[in-house]
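Worked example

This section walks through a single chain of length 277. The input is the sequence exactly as stored; nothing has been trimmed or padded.
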Amino acid sequence: MKIYTFLLLVCFTTLSKAQTHRFIYEYKFKPDSSSTNYRNVNMALDINPKDVKFYNYENIINDSLNKKGGNNYSTSPDIPTLRRLKNSYQNTNYEMMMDYFSYNTEDKMDWKLEKETKTSGQYTLQKATTDFGGRHWTAWFCKDINISEGPYKFRGLPGLIFELNDSKENFFFKLAKSQKLEKTYDTSDFLESFAGKKPVLVSIANIHKMMLQFYNDPTKEMREKFDDVPPGTFQVGGTKITSKEQFKEAAKVIQNFIAKNNNPMDLKNAVVYPVIN
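Given that input, the structure is written out below as tokens.
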């Protein structure tokens, strides 16, 4: 019930231009679509005067610690990080791989408003559906909250999205709480840059090319450094690498892990990995 208290405290009237609405969503997803196991992460949706940002809420906590002398931020390929201009479908996506990258996408959605409604606390939610990224999605939004935004790239409904999931139940978003900030939160240490690295702007095609290069030869960097480090420095799947002969099997372990944990939300912009025998 905490969400309803927070929403009332935020007060969804017209905000001053200097204020930011932050909505925290519980994000539950399957890294492996064939598994029954979910991973849970809290995500922040910052609706600022000029832009909208969506990122791992843990980085807000880490940011506070880092400003006191720490050096720890959280990133993962299966946790989306993005920024877009206000009232826009133009998204800048951020991704950490062998370096920190960004790429641009246009993600307009055509929503179908359904007649079905349900009650959530004191709020009435209306159902809407859309096809996006090769998946069918259902959203529950609140017309009483005049904010046309939601988690990830989902926006454009006549009200704030409270709940969102795909038809195969791989991904779930649920609004947990909200905050009103007096000014835009500075994300420059973990979004516009990451731990000091500025993103390299690339195309999706180049992102896919780099991902495939790593997948096809995942132990290349370890092999090249093997003679310069003590035996057992490298580990793959909990096994220490003490001879070059182990790299072939280690490559298969890494490839199997990548292929198994490849369940992106946007299937249309996803890399397709070849089957390795």
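What to look for: Residues 247-260 form the longest helix (14 residues).
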